[in-house]
């Protein structure tokens, strides 16, 4: 690729990275930190995390994929006030249901109740049951968010399997050839060891992709060691490849968490995706640290090899689609390194020139040391008594670095060492999922964290306040750079507190907590779908029924449905522009967008106390069939063509979102679909409508046994799930 083209790419990425690692962009040394703190003040515990992303809306590196078009909403809430009789006597269809005394009490107190269910494995089953009984349906935000997860996961799988796997194999093969040539050219120099490290680095990737790939004799022992560690995936230890030829101490050698190579998420059901997962994890996690001269040599040699022929084009064909789904790399990569290489060595440099020019090498190292450190630490390091300068320990080149995400950045600033010890002398080694909605402004989430003692850590409250202040000020464009951010922005609509003019069931603390559960469960699906890329901190149509008035209701959240429609549109447009979307998936996304827009319109009408049309009530009745259609379409690439495959493809899933190097990971999971019963006003009368909502679980789990969907689903089936969060007791009853 010509230098001019590469410079253009570098310029786009420089403009694009919201939390950029490019010092050439002219940002503050830490773009997340408050500018110019008083020099005379010593920061209190947690002040290092007093970090604010830049407020100016910036283009995303993925802007060339698609734009995010906000769908407007227009309504004035004016549902007449109503109340549920303590004995439920003013509900017209109460006799259609059987409730426990505890459920009846919550139904009377809150106007709704969530009832656990061990048998509903997917949302569409709940709604099809409504049609067959028949009872009024209650369309939930949970069910629509789950729909998007199904398609996000499907589209990512198809993109990976059909496009990225072939590109990754071709790139790895080409890089192996180039690196072998470099090693031969550098034999007998002090750069030869760095070239051998790269040969081993790429040979490990090649073997993960193809177990029959020949490994150069010079690196066979170290490659075998690395592959054995990846296969055993037992935990944290020194990387033999990174320590090649250096004999560093345990304190100085790069430590790697090999438990990260356990395939999980949607990567467990397909051999090609399993090998892709492990290879991309390898490329995404291995850090050639700038503090280490030999590792920095390796990084420069990799950059040179990538810059030759069409290899950077292949690299970009992998990087750009994954950036559109998740986000940009959090670590320095080939773009920054190539810019420095050309600046110092010129654009005709060869590997053989590096050993003979010590002055240019020192100049390169000096400039590389100025590159922005990552915002998220995903490298196991020791505490400040042994590694006082964390930035120096974690800053380095990554071949295809894992991605910056806003939620991981929030986590980073709310755990040790950004926050100090609590009053019992304990360190906050793992975050809580509630940190995310709390940072986005949810008072209820913060109060729940406070009640659990999570805010007792030194610096936690100060860091949280600064995060909240920032997120209050960011414009909508801030959220629209990637599908990951767009999903978070959609979930943000769950954090508003409905007031006067909303249905009575929405005007209480229990509903606020129900919405928090929806937020956390959908966020869990997001983390599950992106477990490979996102950096962790160190996370029907039946008939024959009696004629019965079964007119239902829609959970009235116009903003959420509007944002979801915008997100679906952006997904379709972005993938289609890059030739990554087939016609059938495009049509399914169009239908999903249309459904979200219909629910937005229906929500606005309900909030303005307007009666829905017959067609809109029919949409509620047929909702289960529509969900089943989307479910079948989203699993088509997995060979699913009938609902009989439901038991092998339930909604329940699990993911880990943060790591305590002491031996645990924070695990988030969803289980069976629970029923929600809501007292809703229809045509002047109160009735109970039924829908489906997520169940959500959060718990620590051993690091060397990161859970897969298969293991978790067995736990769900056998009743071995941990307890629900205690705060759900305000609205969940057996």
Automatic annotation (TrEMBL):
Annotated signal sequence range: 1-26
Record-annotated membrane-spanning stretches: none
A Pfam family: DUF3160
InterPro entries: DUF3160
Listed SMART domains: DUF3160
Name listed for the protein in its UniProt record: DUF3160 domain-containing protein
Alphabetic keyword roster: Signal
